[in-house]
Specification:
Elements: H1 34-42, E1 46-49, H2 54-71, E2 85-89, E3 109-116, E4 119-125, H3 129-144, E5 153-156, E6 162-166, H4 197-207, E7 212-214, H5 227-240, E8 246-251, H6 255-260, H7 270-286, E9 292-295, H8 312-323, E10 329-333, H9 345-353, E11 364-369, E12 393-398, H10 414-422, H11 434-438, E13 449-453, H12 466-480, H13 486-497, H14 502-523, H15 554-558, E14 564-565, H16 582-589, H17 599-602, E15 605-606, H18 617-641, H19 648-680, H20 695-700
Parallel strand pairs: 1-2, 2-4, 6-7, 6-13, 7-8, 8-9, 9-10, 10-11, 11-12, 12-13
Antiparallel strand pairs: 3-4, 3-5, 14-15
Helix pairs in contact: 2-3, 7-8, 10-13, 12-13, 13-14, 14-18, 18-19
The chain binds 4-O-methyl-alpha-D-glucopyranuronic acid (GCV).
Length: about 700
């Protein structure tokens, strides 16, 4: 390593060997081979950008950076149109704009190959400079992926308005469920020190269309609403603004009591409402385009309006009134379950929120996790989707992989996101997909949103592993356009992250596409859920049965005994199926018509129950565990074959992480089988090996320092 000293400086002209450490994400702009580089250069001879603004500057600099990286040539800015130029224009900057921008909204764009003044050019048109920035990133994505830049005729506009990251970042720099190091927000040194990483963060998000970020943990501290912390948030907002990204804050319900000694946090108390109004005014003075508040209330020990016998709607509407004059919104989370409620945990959010349909103010949106428990490797879609037609609902996905292998397992989340978005709620007949609920088209809502719990930290590679970057990327792309396929997104990402050589793209995409299903198989096959280790959620612990709240115990979720396994959520059991639309409920009532992937989520079945494969439930369960481990071994083989095509640093990291994943998949399989066999008392099917250790060995493992756990 060369240390920079006052005397021994590296000459500026010397080539700098840069390691592929993942910092550049999917914006690497690697040098294209000669034919592709020549094609690219012909489509990018100059930039003609009408107007000036910080956003337009970012767009033109990004195009210059991309083209320089891919071709080695500097793209000049030009005032006149020339052959091969890239034209960036809005109707305001260019009244004679030859491309229609109707229907593109304030963020969308069109890209057209056309002839202007007798010159073949590419026009990027939009109604705003932020739209142009999104268009520039689209063009660069095509260029990086080796797609044709001829005959372009693209129009793209997001259907979902709020496309946000939720950071579960604490003010002390830790990240709840973060597996990529400390928080990237250097709260301590903000607002004076604004490191370059903040702009890089905004750039990465803008490149995939994310337009908002909630800076702090939903398990919020009141301090984030004090003047010094508002100033810190404002500094970040200033950096993000030209990228089209707004900031939002999570708030703690009792902040008026904690910060200013109010006697109550009752939402119907005028003093409480006045406090929040004044707080909102203070925030908007510092951050004029502040997005609004995110609230976790009456959930997992957080205070909320129910502490004062008020409803979630009472609470949300009071906050909504405070931000409304400024154009702000409130995102009120539906992730609630109570320790004194004996009902099935999977039912509680619906029970609390469904009666409130139509009772929320028009600047409130209810944020619902994709499933009714908590970001499990697989959950059926949340029954609230489609069940609150008079209330806008936004999706909450978890990008950070609390339950899916954290930083080391390669478990591409694209298929999980896609599965949920495509799920049919039947709320308004066939085709009432979750995607149509959250984009507002099913029920006619204008306030629409989707949030992803970020997997970003201060690690050099942002996400804790190269492949975890794909989950961030996939979230953004699907948030922009829910109709994209997880596979297509994986292909785009692979081309930009590694190479557009089919020898790389095909195997990597194949590996990614089956990887989440493999994790389901080795962790929670056939609809099992929440059998992870207590607190840290790292590794298997299906035996845990001694925690204070019933629903904290894995045994609550699988209910395995000598006769069978699974949670009966039919009418005979908790009747959670009754929370779905009648067509769906009917399908889920019968194990034969329940998708097998969700079988044990909805049914308690005897071990001899016959699966579609002909296996008994017991044998099938074991076969799923085996299949999951085998898939990881296959990924190791595939990855090894890619060594000649991948740079040493990223190859080695992935190779090492796959080794960890294989060891842990085996551990998951063995520990789960050791436990379930201790209750089922059944022999393993032929060909399935006995676990490496006895059950006591697995039970004795302890992980006090597993990351991400407060
Ligand atoms: C932020 C799960 C996680 C918690 C998280 C919570 C939530 O329970 O384990 O860490 O808290 O979900 O979404 O509020």
């Amino acid at each position: 390593m060369i240390a920079a000293t006052g005397t021994a400086l590296t000459p500026l002209s010397a080539p700098v060997a840069r390691a592929e450490d993942g910092y550049d994400l999917w914006l690497r702009y690697a040098r294209a081979d000669a034919p592709r580089g020549a094609g690219l250069a012909a489509h990018a001879t100059a930039i003609v950008a009408a107007g000036t603004s910080p956003t337009l500057t970012i767009a033109t600099q990004e195009l210059q950076r991309g083209v320089a990286g891919m071709t080695g040539t500097t793209l000049p800015l030009s005032a006149t149109i020339q052959q091969g130029a890239l034209l960036l224009a809005t109707p305001a900057s260019t009244p004679s704009l030859p491309v229609k921008t109707d229907g593109l909204g304030s963020e969308g764009y069109a890209i057209r190959s056309m002839t202007v003044d007798g010159k073949a050019v590419t026009v990027i048109a939009a109604n705003s400079d932020v739209g142009l920035l999104h268009g520039a990133y689209h063009w660069l994505r095509l260029a990086q992926s080796g797609e044709s830049l001829d005959h372009l005729d693209i129009s793209s506009a997001p259907k979902i308005g709020l496309r946000l990251l939720n950071h579960w970042d604490n003010l002390n720099g830790t990240v709840e469920r973060g597996y990529a190091g400390e928080s990237i927000w250097d709260w301590w040194r903000l607002p004076d020190w604004k490191g370059p990483r903040y702009a890089d963060y905004a750039r990465a998000n803008a490149s995939i269309g994310i337009n908002g970020t909630v800076l702090n943990n939903v398990n919020a501290r009141s301090d984030s609403l004090t003047a010094p912390y508002i100033a810190k948030a404002a500094a970040l907002a200033d950096i993000f603004r030209p990228y089209g990204i707004k900031v939002y804050l999570s708030v703690k319900w009792t902040a008026p009591m904690e910060l200013d000694g109010l006697k109550t946090a009752d939402p119907l108390d005028p003093a409480v409402a006045a406090w929040w109004k004044a707080k909102a005014d203070e925030i908007y003075k510092a951050i004029p385009d502040f997005g609004g508040f995110l609230v976790k209330a009456n959930s997992e020990g957080q205070p909320g309006p129910q502490d004062y016998n008020r409803t979630h709607a009472d609470g949300a509407n009071m906050l909504a009134a405070a931000v409304k004059p400024h154009g702000g919104i409130v995102m009120w989370r539906a992730f609630v379950y109570a320790h004194d409620n004996p009902d099935d945990r999977a039912k509680q959010a619906y029970t609390d929120f469904k009666p409130l349909d139509g009772k929320f103010a028009d600047n409130v949106i209810v944020q619902v996790k994709n499933g009714a428990i908590d970001f499990q490797p697989r959950e059926p879609f949340h029954p609230l989707f489609g069940a609150m037609p008079k209330t806008p609902l936004m999706m909450e996905f978890q990008i950070t992989k609390e339950y899916l292998g954290q930083s080391t397992h390669l478990t591409y989340l694209g298929p999980l996101f896609e599965e949920v978005l495509d799920a049919d709620t039947f709320a308004n007949g066939r085709g009432s997909t979750v995607a149509k609920v959250i984009d507002g088209s099913l029920e006619g809502h204008r306030l629409t949103g989707i949030a992803g719990v970020a997997n970003i930290g201060a690690n050099r590679d942002w996400s804790g592993s190269i492949f975890n970057q794909a989950d961030w990327y996939a979230f953004g792309r699907l948030a922009w356009d829910t109709s994209l396929s997880a596979e297509g997104i994986a292909r785009e990402w692979t081309k930009m992250t590694f190479s557009s050589d089919p020898k790389v793209v095909q195997p990597v995409v194949t590996m990614m596409m089956g990887s989440r299903e493999a994790a389901v198989d080795y962790m929670t096959p056939l609809g099992l859920a929440h059998v992870m280790g207590t607190g840290h959620h790292y590794g298997p612990a299906p035996w845990v049965s001694d925690l204070a709240r019933p629903e904290w115990n894995p045994v609550y979720y699988h209910k395995a005994d000598v006769n069978g396994i699974g949670f009966d959520r039919t009418k005979r059991g908790s009747d959670a199926v009754g929370q779905y639309a009648p067509v769906v409920a009917k399908m889920l009532t019968d194990p034969r018509t329940t998708p097998e992937r969700d079988l044990l989520w909805f049914h308690h079945l005897p071990w001899d129950y016959r699966l579609k494969s002909g296996d008994t439930l017991w044998d099938g369960l074991i076969h799923h565990y085996d299949g999951g481990v085998r898939y990881v071994a296959d990924m190791q083989t595939t990855w090894a074959s890619l060594k000649p095509y991948v740079d040493a640093e990223r190859f080695a990291e992935t190779e090492a992480f796959l080794t960890i994943q294989h060891r842990e998949a085996q551990w998951w399989r063995d520990a789960s089988i050791a436990y379930f066999q201790s209750v089922s008392k059944r022999p393993l099917p032929a060909g399935s090996a006995a676990p490496a250790h006895d059950l006591d060995w697995y039970k004795a493992q302890s992980f006090p320092y597993a990351p991400g756990h407060n």
